[in-house]
Amino acid sequence: MFREREREIIYRNSNMFMYYFILFFILRLSTAQGDCTPTTCSDRGPTIRFPFRLKNQPPHCGYLGFDLSCSPNNTDTLLNLPYSVQVLVTNIDYKSQLIHIEDPNNCFPQQLQNLSLSTTPFQFVGYQNNFSLFSCPPSTNPDFSFLMIPCLGGDGREVRVGRDDSIKYAPPQLISCRKMFNVPSVPYEVFDQTPHLQLKWLQPVCGECEAKGKFCRLKRNSTSDEIECFGDLNPLTKGHNLVIAGETLGPFLLLVILAAMFWFYRQKKIKREDNLKIERFLEDYRALKPARYSYADIKKITNQFNEKVGQGGYGTVYKGQLSNDVYVAVKILNSTKENGEDFINEVGIIGTIHHVNVVRLVGYCADGFRRALIYEFLPNDSLETFASSDHRKRSLGWKKLLEIAMGIAKGIEYLHQGCDQQILHFDIKPHNILLDENLNPKITDFGLAKLCSKEQSVVSMTTARGTIGYIAPEVFSRNFGNVSYKSDIYSFGMLLLEVVGGKKNFDVMVSSTNQVYFPEWIYNCLERGEELGIHIQDEGDAKIAKKLAIVGLWCIQWYPVDRPSMHVVIQMLEGDGDTLIKPPNPFASTNPTMTTGQANGRPFTSELEVIVESE
């Protein structure tokens, strides 16, 4: 409790510090970043105006290379020169175009080795010469004409300077000296401890504006150095202008301050809410992170297998609960085949992928011969319970059924294209589509899934796999083509047709149509323009049902190359059903010699190549 209180105090103080810092920054910004208004670093500093500008002012306020800055304590005005040379600016004479500079350490020669004005708009005032600096032993000879520089001496030696043209007449004492470096093109005053030096700039500026008593600046967005005049240089009107500016700026600053205070209040509230949300997420994530459990843990999670929610050939599903009210579905596997291939597939595949339309694997158990899989709990059962019941399907509504179909399609597309390796499910059916609390679909049961390379699109198989009624023809016989991701699309098509007609309708239509295949019966109805015989009252719902049926028929074309990719399927489901083209009759011919497919003259894909199944 004490630590939480301590963190709260630190958090509050840091917020107050940031609050005052932002207010200071806003006030500083409002004065420093005005529209090229002359400014200063301090009361005793020079006025900074065009062609000079502070570095935080807009670029059009000054020429390139005329940037000044303020010292950290805002007492001095600084000018940076090449290379790494920094000087104090004590005065700027805009009429004569001169600036007075000083060395911050009162030792100009110390910086001369790095100084170069050739790339700047400035040059020294007065006669200039080339000099050389020498390190010499101490001398008491008054005839040693080379000037000594006290601020550079030390270690028992003294530094002296002489002009290059006078070195040939150097005194004998220079023999015992060591040359340090040359200094080209500087005035002699640099070395004689003159406190002030002058630099001049040559480019004439602002003459016309100053003649009119105006300030000047570069024109905004101008590609040349074109100048415009603004403001008033008249000192009698300067105060009046500042009053007007203050009257205008005052309410604006107040508004900015109030907006800043509200922003900080909102940020603080959002921060607290975000922290709480993150803490809750981390609590849940600790429970939801895929982990290995013992069989004793499984019994504890399911409360000794107290609540059974499903059963099938794979085993039995129980409802369980982890910590922090996280509910899970625990699938106890009866037995595994092929040395546990289905169990390995589930853990190895679904445990590494995350998609809103794929069920999440929370954990697993491999305790001796006992094996179990732990999923997130989805309270609305499977799509099969809705597809097989007209009453429950009507309770969902056709718009929701279309949304569910879209979600399943996006989940399959993710498996085919969104992972590092292509995942072929091989058991897409309503029973393996679970619905969450918002009736969003999630694909489950990856026991039959296979991995293959994304660069190739066909997988070799030795035995058929899947559920009768949803298995693609090529899985049974290679005469129809190669097994590929198109096999999942066939299964998805059968799922759509079952959603449209209902599982009971499959059996009813078969018995009432002289053993006519139900998808073929749907195709014949669409061909003749007849109703599908489904209980639909709203015209919009009939349009959705027809669209789902047409997309389903596209997906169950006998030959894989005639089926669209899942990306195209999604486009069909998202599009207007009125413009959807009815597919060719998949039941008119089952000629096994066909190797290419067309949809009304337009091929969906090219010939597929056989690839080796990933280990």
Task: Provide structural commentary.
It is a single chain. The protein is of the alpha+beta class. Helix content is 34%, strand content 20%. It has 15 helices and 23 strands. The strands form 6 sheets. It has a 7-stranded mixed beta sheet with strand order 1-2-3-4-5-11-6, with no helix packed on it. β18 (361-367) and β19 (370-376) form a beta hairpin. α1 packs antiparallel against α4, α9 (398-418) packs antiparallel against α11 and α11 (486-501) runs antiparallel to α14. The radius of gyration is 42 Å and the shape is elongated.
Spell out the blueprint of helices and strands:
Elements: H1 2-32, E1 53-54, E2 67-70, E3 77-81, E4 85-93, E5 98-102, H2 109-112, E6 122-124, E7 129-136, E8 147-154, E9 157-163, E10 178-186, E11 197-201, H3 207-211, E12 215-218, E13 227-230, H4 235-288, E14 291-293, H5 295-301, E15 308-312, E16 315-321, E17 327-333, H6 341-350, E18 361-367, E19 370-376, H7 384-387, H8 390-396, H9 398-418, E20 422-424, E21 433-435, E22 441-443, E23 450-452, H10 473-476, H11 486-501, H12 503-512, H13 518-528, H14 539-555, H15 566-574
Parallel strand pairs: 1-2, 14-18
Antiparallel strand pairs: 2-3, 3-4, 4-5, 5-11, 6-11, 7-9, 7-10, 8-9, 12-13, 15-16, 16-17, 17-19, 18-19, 20-23, 21-22
Helix pairs in contact: 1-4, 9-11, 9-14, 9-15, 11-14, 13-14
